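Re: the 1098-residue chain
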Amino acid sequence: MFRTSCCFLLIVVSAFFAGTAVGQQYASECTLPNRQTGHCMPVKSCRPIYETFLRAKSENRKLSADEVANLQKFFCGTISNTVHVCCAATDIQLNADGLEILKKQEQCGVLTGNKVSNGVEAALFSFPWMALLVYNDTRDPYKCGGSLISERYVLTAAHCLKPDLHLVRLGEHRISTERDCLPNGLVCAPPVENIEIELAIPNYSFRRFSHDIALLRLKRAVQYQKHIKPICLPIYDELRPKRYPEYVISGWGRTDKAPISDVLMAAVIPFVELPECQTVLQKYRLRSRLNESHICAGNRNLVDSCDGDSGGPLGYKDMYNGHPRFIQFGVVAFGVNLCGEGDSPNVYTNVSHYLQWITDNISKYGSPCTTTDNVAGICVPVKSCKPAFDFFAQLRESGRVITFSEREEIQSLHCGTFRGVAHICCDPSKLQLNPDGVSLLEKQKCGIYLTNRVTYGYEAKLMGYPWMALLVYDDERDPYKCGGSLISEQHVLTAAHCVRGRESSIMYVRLGEHRKSTAIDCVKLGPKTTCAPEPLEVGIQDFILHENYRSVYNDIALLRLERKVAPDVHIKPICLPIYENLRSLEHEQYVISGWGRTETGASSDVLRVAIVPHVDVATCQNYLRPFGLTYQLNSTHICAGAKNLVDTCKGDSGGPLGYTDIYNGSSRFVQYGVVSVGVSNCGERNVPGIYANVSHYMQWITDHIHEDDTSPKTTVAPRESPETTEINSRSLEEPCLTPLNSSGFCVPYSKCSLFQQWDIKYGGNLPPTIQEYIKRAQCPKTDDNLILYCCEPETIVTAPIKERSGNGLNLYLNPMQDFHSQLNVEGFDILSGQRCGTDNGNRIAGGNITMLAEFPWMALLIYQGPSGEEFRCGGSLITSRYVLTAAHCLRIAYPLIGVRLGEYNTSTEEDCMKMGPKLKCNPPAENFGVETTILHPEYNRRERVNDIALIKLDRNVEFKKHIEPICLPIYSNIVWTQTDDDFLIAGWGYMEDGHASDVLLKAQIKQLPINKCSEAYSIDASKFRYLCAGDEELGRDTCRGDSGGPLIQFAPYNNRRRFIQYGVVAIGRNACKLTSTLPGAYTHVSYYMPWITNNIVN
């Protein structure tokens, strides 16, 4: 009973904090009420917060007013629809649910073989947790390994999640044999088990070689046998900090004589301290800094892990809950590709560091269940089960308290909480489309089309298919692999195979596109030329793959965009079959559209459309069998095509199959399919294509766009006593988003201290910007017409404030006051509404020379010098009209006459670089005039304070790949950095004396304690709002940068990783001498965000 109640207690927690989404990530840094740094964690992972709820429950009472007020201060957002709180590092505990799953693995880590020695064949049965990942690649089917950690989960490396990952093989020993036996042939292992993968959960940053760990959820639970058992993980506190002189590795990776070992090998390797490991690997140009999330081991000649061992375990035998067991401490991550050579160790992901993440992500979602009537059910959100939804609706309308017997029945049906949403076991015959998801889709003006007719394989009419989405990948050779369809303001529907294993390489979604090669799409109609508005590129906040995706089954996915998209003539959502009469329809023919390969074999530059005939599934199966289709097609599929040269092709994957139907009384274009599978020869006679049947997946779609939406969720709250009902009542503040997208709660005007501060400061005569902020902060009216306002938790008070100094909209940031309220609302909207800080992906490993368009925000300031135009300072593009620079760059002897953007090599007219056999060139650099310059009003050159300025250009900038803005720290969770953080500086080395490099250079440096700059330059750097950075060993500093140029960091930004500018080059050495170790002092941009947001408003 206690266990069931605990599950329900967490649902109450969800109701308490309900549904606000903020720009946070799992375990990202946040600010505690005491202003110390914490980490944003699920409620169950934070000991004092979770204990508060448990204590109230055990005492059979409601939370006190003080407890409520205190808890709200810790709320840091809803991440993947799971309530998170800001938790001190010392208070973080392993998630109770995930920990319970791991503790139940009583057979974990039992060693049945003999000891292993350096690089020899492992004994049969000795490593029963070893998993072999199998890929659909005939040349290299075994790229990675893994380890079984429970009946349903395999632990591996995130870089192993390739698109062609097919299944997991357990119980394997020798790959080439059907049965694995001892040499005498008398003892054999049972057959291996090949299990398909239901869900992949990565946690990876490729470019920084960090978080290289992933979970694979298997399609079915494993039956433990002698040759298949789980490995233990260091779930007990005393195990996690341990380091051993040596570790054991195992795998089928390359040996010293062959590409890959046929038999499972094992070896003992020595532990290597991180500093020593870093020094050794730097010789091989490893630039990423190792930290506590890594373990180093190896460097014993010819004994180390190699390719093919990736994802496998690094472990050691130790006492585990009183028994000697084998425990996994590492996951094979990366090395230098010289297996066991010389002194090179390998790097392993530290499992102890990620136990929190592992226990948080182990879930029972999607598992079968049994209802109270002993009917085989399915675990679904409450709103998707009609009897449960109706019950709670009636309960809410009547206002009565749930009875004891009703509570008992609901508890017996509860089957888990997935993504923070309560699930119950529901009879499949009683499922309904999630009402919230349906409501979201019904609100869209969808499927409005401009085309009259389409013919076979012709160019689509301009703006004729405004729902078409183009997925853009970080792949120069093939950036347009897939399409999709806009189905709501914030969701794109596509195919799961377009996403799995490619999450880190999908840069953004392009909407409103027609011809890929042109910036603006136009067509000539008679004497007139009609042009569409510019396409829109939107980042992706979340990837949602169907949990049961495998091969041709459940090949469907949703992309949640990082912001809502406003409908336009060229951007509109497509309709989905949300009405029952539509889902039962079958059409003789359908319309397909996309940019896939044409009959010439090349990808089409322009959007094309065609009509294809419907083919029944049985006939389709027969057509495709000669082409190797061995899977049985069913009602989840639609087949269409088989008309010579008219079909979808590679590049159309994820795009829509649709038809014009009557939709809620109007003629609209409705999507019935998602392009899934076809043969390699597009349009071959009698070869149809396979589409995921959207009608079949409407339940899944409406469930998941509801779960992603920020609207409040229906919760299943057990009524342990009448007092518990108040947790769901309106007496607690409703969660909301402030006008600056930070989390808050709806409260009366008098309870928001921020508003009271403004009233005191301005005597009731509020400036227009503050009036606008308050207007936009208004929450929807309550049933009794009470007007509430969205207020951040830190500023909610229980009694009126008598007097407090106001923060207003100042020249500087006050760190002790609410961050967002100090920013100008319009300025914030400008910065948050643009695509910025994009990582274009090109790199030279270990090099100082940048690649083309690697830093597209870099600006060069043009001066009228004694011998003509000269570059003497740099800057950074921050909006389409403003460049950020140093104030001292606007106070030198020569007049500023312009700004150059998109530059790379100042000595060449055209910037080109050879990449393989091809020559890649940037578009021309662009010069802009200067409309005005804005120096910080308190800039003082003599005292070296407030060295920051803005340049307003004479016209708006048109963003291109080589000209884009940098992000600024506009969100509260990214305002501050820490000592030892890594940063990048880039520039041509332009100092006031005019010396420079022709080519844009870069260097990696670290943040240093502020006293380093104070001592170096005889200033109080902390008082004067500087950030100190450099490289004390190599002497790198802004000699490679420019005065006024940016100091940047690649970090989380509104749920995506972006380059963010934290500093402006202010004080440094006058010459680049590597013998000097003086740091550089940078104007700290975070302190000046109120001033910047005030001044970029036109």
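The radius of gyration is 30 Å.
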